[in-house]
Design a protein that fits this description.
single chain; 25 strands; seven-stranded antiparallel beta sheet
């Protein structure tokens, strides 16, 4: 059966996160089942494929497939996944393309036992690392940086393992901690990892903290790792803390051990987690995402007020910002669009006419709320500009007299190379057009974005993390890591990793 993804046609004006990852160590629990439900809670972070790998201390097991978690797993798939350690992965492809061979977790047998890796993020020096592995005679079966990380851990050459088995506090590292630390000195870019071995679970976060990862406690004898805290509450785990940038945690029968794998020069959590990616009930940097999004809406109302009758949000991601805008402006908030939440994924391809009107498949206007009203339409972001125009038209067809679009993030003018499918310069509407031109293209009466300064102010207002900082490269063009020039090339919207590697000499 050919798999058809209909999220892209309907949500292709939104950036896509690469992955959601999870890990659990619990001897008294059905870890495969708990991982299934945790991945269900992280489904928004990746919808192309899912996988779970487990270990019983001797043997490792795995099942993965294409589609949503509920499409990949049923009871017959979960039952064989025995053990007390598990890692799980939801995937949206940015590097490597769609396909089962590129779906995680990766599970291999090494001289030191099974090794499984689930990865969220993108390495920016993948091609150099691939070349190093291939020159050593290591075969690669996929085009993902996740497999590169796995092979680097499985058989690192002596040259990669400079230094002894002591960490900075003088404590001895175990074999896998030593290998993880060596990998971290070479890998550049974004990575949060959950790693399964025969006897332990590891959690790793890159030294800039670009991608999120948190730790939770499950009962008296279990611990979990997850991209977002929303997955913890789903399975009854208690949030403990976030994994620090550059940190390696080991979880086994002795509890949690932490070491620094690479010193953190600064914090650079992706600020788009607050704008769009993370679930509103997740907490990051000591604050709930929903509260941040309301502050974004309030700041947007301060910066870009408009004479109107009602405030409407694009459901569901822009709802908190729309509420914040309404609270700050004093305008009433109401629903103007109702969302069909079951159209986003199907095996049935729409015909050409439905594709042209695809926004109607996902939204319907609430005409009684819109009739004769001057509407402020709040959205969280505009990337390609494909859906903004149809949404404005939908509101006008529903009876709106005026439609003023307000965006609770700055214009997206630069692509992302750290784990987000943020299109290319050619596809980014704000890179190629002025705000006035975009307003004309989408047919709005006015258009305004939140400023970069306003975004930072709203996010930082509630954070409790010392020295918190964020990557806003998609807005500012100021990348926290060096970006190789080949990554800026535009080949059908994304550079093919294998093709680019083939050009390297």
């Amino acid at each position: 059966m050919q798999y058809t993804d209909l999220i892209m046609p309907y949500d292709d004006d939104k950036p896509k996160e690469e992955c959601g990852i999870f890990g659990i160590y619990a001897r008294s629990r059905d870890v495969a089942r708990l991982t299934f439900f945790a991945l269900y809670a992280l489904q928004h972070r990746g919808q192309e494929g899912a996988g779970i790998a487990t270990s019983d201390g001797q043997v490792a097991y795995i099942h993965k497939g294409m589609g949503l978690v509920s499409q990949v797993f049923d009871e017959s798939h979960l039952k064989p996944l025995e053990g007390h350690i598990a890692i799980g992965h939801n995937r949206y492809s940015t590097t490597g393309g769609v396909g089962l061979r590129n779906t995680s977790p990766y599970l291999i047998e090494s001289i030191d036992g099974p090794l499984g890796v689930a990865h969220n993020g993108n390495l920016t020096n993948t091609l150099n690392l691939r070349q190093m592995l291939l020159k050593r005679g290591v075969g690669l079966s996929s085009t993902t940086d996740s497999e590169v990380i796995t092979q680097m851990l499985a058989a690192p050459p002596d040259a990669w393992l400079d230094g002894d088995y002591l960490d900075i506090d003088g404590d001895y590292l175990d074999l896998w901690q030593h290998r993880i630390k060596a990998m971290m000195q070479l890998a550049e870019g974004a990575y949060s990892l959950t790693i399964l071995t025969r006897n332990a679970l590891y959690g790793v976060r890159d030294s800039l903290g670009l991608r999120p990862l948190c730790l939770g406690k499950l009962g008296d004898d279990g611990y979990v790792l997850a991209s977002e805290s929303c997955a913890l509450s789903t399975i009854g785990a208690e949030f403990v803390r976030e994994i620090e940038p550059g940190e390696i945690v080991r979880i086994d029968d002795n509890g949690v051990q932490s070491i620094i794998g690479k010193e953190s020069p600064r914090r650079s959590l992706c600020i788009f987690e607050y704008v769009y990616f993370a679930r509103p009930d997740s907490q990051m940097e000591g604050q709930f995402v929903h509260n941040v999004r309301q502050r974004l809406g309030r700041q947007l109302a301060i910066e870009s007020p408009v004479d109107a009758d009602i405030v409407v949000g694009v459901p569901d991601s822009a709802t908190p910002a729309a509420i914040g805008y309404a609270l700050q402006s004093g305008l009433p908030y109401t629903e103007g669009l109702t969302k069909n939440r079951y159209i986003g994924r199907t095996f049935i391809q729409p015909d050409d006419q439905l594709r042209k009107n695809s926004v109607h498949l996902k939204y319907n206007p609430l005409t009684q709320n819109l009739e004769g009203k001057r509407v402020v339409l709040v959205d969280d972001s505009i990337v390609r500009g494909n859906t903004s125009g149809p949404l404005v038209k939908l509101l006008r067809d529903g009876g709106a007299k005026e439609v003023h679009v307000r965006v609770s993030s700055p214009p997206v003018r630069h692509p992302c190379f750290m784990g987000i499918d943020m299109a290319t310069y050619k596809q980014l509407i704000a890179h190629n057009h002025t705000i006035e031109e975009i307003c004309q293209q989408i047919g709005a009466d006015s258009l305004a974005y939140l400023s970069v300064e306003g975004l930072s102010k709203a996010v930082m207002e509630g954070t409790k993390e010392r020295g918190a900082g964020h990557c806003n490269a998609c807005f500012s063009g100021q990348y926290p890591v060096v970006i190789p020039s080949w990554l800026f090339e535009e080949e059908e919207g994304r550079v093919a990793i294998m093709g680019a590697w083939g050009r390297m000499k």
